[in-house]
Design brief:
4-stranded antiparallel β-sheet, alpha+beta, 3 helices
Length: 97
């Protein structure tokens, strides 16, 4: 399983618009065959901070996602609103502790 955490800092005043765009992107992404989970969150203390938390079956599913029309639309439309984007990818395996 691949887990991706994508943090976004949007420009002030763009919060409502980014949530509308994200709603569309999330709904479409959840329909992809390799998507195990896809969630979008807004920070409880900073309205300009958001993150996606994603789980994918495998690397191929994640690569396919990046070529989907809704993903390309999301990136193009959100780009002018995003001040900072940090993406972390994890090859997830349960660790016994």
């Amino acid at each position: 399983m691949i887990v991706v955490v994508s943090s976004l800092r949007v420009k002030p005043g763009c919060e409502a618009e980014i949530k509308l765009l994200a709603r569309e992107a999330v709904a479409a992404t959840r329909q992809e065959s390799g998507c195990l989970s896809y969630r979008f969150f807004q920070d409880a203390y900073d309205a300009c901070e958001f993150c996606f938390v994603e789980a994918w079956r495998d690397t191929e599913a994640l690569k396919a996602h990046r070529n989907e029309a809704h993903f390309i639309k999301w990136r193009e439309k959100s780009a002018p609103m995003v001040a900072e984007r940090i993406i972390k990818r994890y090859d997830a395996q349960e660790i016994d502790v």
